[in-house]
Specification:
The chain is an alpha/beta fold and about 325 residues long. The protein folds into 2 domains: about 200 residues, 3-Layer(aba) Sandwich (Rossmann fold); about 110 residues, Magnesium chelatase subunit I, C-Terminal domain (Helicase, Ruva Protein, domain 3, Orthogonal Bundle). About 45% of the residues lie in helices and about 15% in strands. The strands form 4 sheets. It has a 5-stranded parallel beta sheet with strand order 2-5-8-1-9. The two termini are about 30 Å apart.
Length: about 325
């Protein structure tokens, strides 16, 4: 078993890498620190995330810059209503040997075969194509006919979604939303950040980012996150929060029973713990706290609660409910 001194050294190295990544990203991305930390947390956990925000908030720029800093292959897929599964997974094509004239099938890999895949406006493509992406996200593989092809490792899908334009869209089914560790809200910049954005983006001088980590480095960073300690106290707190999201649970608050049709499943609890581990590692702590769990509660739970008609007519959204929930659920009593 690894001793404390060795782990402390690995944790310090983790912090240095995290600081270097955020510093490099700040060369091209103004503000959005919480969004960047949540994106990095999902990557350090080997999970996928969904960015939700209006156009023009640098969602695509953030993902492209992250891939450049990570020295990883990057592909952007613009999802449209006519996009077919083979357009993203790849397909078999007939190829003729120039010497023998013999024809044979050859697999032509699609844009999913990259380390970081940006699924732009994911809700604009039909369910059949969404389902093809679902297998890739969950299984890290693509099936073409009878042959299964493994995707590169690490493999991270970062999808974007426009919350204000719903005409001609195909809302993601709950099963696919659940595959995303975080549903990250990308908001408007504050006045100082917006002023700096205008100054930075109109001087006409492109910024070249430097690669900091490789794919192998990412696996080592993920190992550090996996080694963060989770106490029984924190586990109980996560269990209490997740079970309180379910209206049939006897411990669910009254507002959950009144406003929610269905609550979060066990995967939500797993992601709460993993997200809290990533935050703890970023701050150089060897164990998670209940505060870490609360910090990731909104991005983990906001897309895992099914609101009923009463909530919708009252103008209450899942973010408000999650914030109410973490205030209503107390930390476990010390035995």
């Amino acid at each position: 078993m690894e001793d404390k001194a060795a782990f402390a050294e690995r944790l310090a190295q983790f912090q240095q890498v995290h600081t270097s990544i955020t510093r490099e990203l700040s060369k091209v991305i103004i503000g959005q620190r919480e969004v960047i930390d949540q994106m990095l947390a999902s990557m350090f956990c080997g999970a996928h995330c969904l960015l939700v925000g209006v156009p023009g908030l640098a969602k695509t720029a953030m993902v492209k810059s992250l891939a450049e800093i990570m020295a990883l292959s990057f592909k952007r897929i613009q999802f449209t209503p006519d996009l077919m599964p083979s357009d993203i997974t790849g397909t078999d094509v007939i190829e003729e040997d120039a010497n023998t004239g013999k024809r044979d099938f050859k697999f032509l890999a699609g844009p999913l075969f990259a380390h970081i895949v940006l699924a732009d406006e994911i809700n604009r493509t039909p369910p059949k194509t969404q389902a093809a992406l679902l297998e890739a996200m969950q299984e890290r593989q693509v099936s073409i006919g009878k042959v299964t092809y493994m995707l590169p490792r690490p493999f991270l899908v970062i999808a974007t979604q426009n919350p204000i334009e719903q005409e001609g869209t195909y809302p993601l089914p709950e099963a696919q939303q659940d595959r995303f560790m975080f549903n990250i809200h990308v908001g408007y910049p504050n006045p100082e950040e917006e002023l700096e954005i205008y100054r930075f983006t109109t001087h006409g001088k492109p910024v070249k980012l430097s690669p900091i980590v490789t794919g192998e480095d990412i696996f080592r960073l993920q190992e550090v996150v996996d080694s963060i300690i989770v106490s029984d106290y924190a586990l109980q707190y996560v269990t209490d929060i997740v079970r309180s999201t379910r209206p049939a649970s006897p411990n669910a608050p009254k507002f959950i029973k009144d406003l929610v049709d269905w609550g979060a499943g066990p995967r939500a609890g797993q992601f709460l713990i993993k997200g809290a581990k990533a935050l703890a590692a970023m701050e150089g702590r060897v164990n998670i706290s209940c505060a870490d769990v609360r910090r990731v509660a909104v991005p983990v739970l906001r897309h895992r609660l099914g609101l009923n008609f009463q909530a919708q007519t009252s103008g209450i959204d899942t973010v408000q409910l999650v914030n109410m929930l973490i205030k209503a659920v107390p930390e476990p009593k010390l035995s």
